[in-house]
Amino acid sequence: MDRVDWRIKGQEFVNCNCDLGCPCQFMARPTHGDCKAFAAVKIEDGFFGDTRLDGLAFAMTLKWPGAIHEGNGSAQAFVDERASPEQRDALMAILSGETSEPGATFFNVFASTLTEMHDPVFCPIEIDCDVDGRNATVRVADLVEASGSPIRNPIDGSEHRARIDLPHGFEYAVAEVATGKTSAHADIPLELDASHCHMARLDIGPTGVHH
Questions:
Q1: DSSP 72-134
Q2: What is the dihedral of CA 191, 32, 37, 68, to 10 degrees?
Q3: Partner of 172 for a Cys bridge, out of 57, 107, 145, 200, CB 3.0 to 4.6 A?
Q4: 0.85 cut: is pTM over it?
Q5: What Pfam families would the database entry show (predicted)?
């Protein structure tokens, strides 16, 4: 790995094609046998070496023909157009997984399963994410629209709250589970509706999740 130190804190939104709860979080096969996902991060406080990353955002579309660990995946990154050349390089270095210790972060783990990486897109990214409220809206230029909302009790319509706690996870410590919707029209098209969504307060660096 490249030994540049980095850390990003902020809000994370993820929507995938699994049923609510996502069996992949529990070392089980994906609901439909394959994985399709959209992820977006709004950085509140971050750095890569001497380069500050505060206030920037990035997103990714990803897909695998089977379970993630079986490989042959493809991905595309979207990076905040407001980022300077140095900030763009920093974000791409983090997303590449090459600046993480092996297996320590989801950037590194996912990158190791990809065989196709589409060219990144530098564009406007808007993320409004209320982690505790399980509400989010994400817009990536005119290429991706996504949203998340609380799970509803099918009997009385009340909000249902569930969390996933991963003490040794490589993505987050605790995530709020929601229901998500994504429509993506870039190199990896996605149409997800009423499928698994999680939102988390991200705090991660090259050695993994900070608790």
A1: -EEEEEEEETT--HHHHHHHHHHHTSTTS-TTTSHHHHHHTTEEEEPPPEEE-EEEEEETTTT
A2: -150
A3: 200
A4: yes
A5: DUF1326 (PF07040)
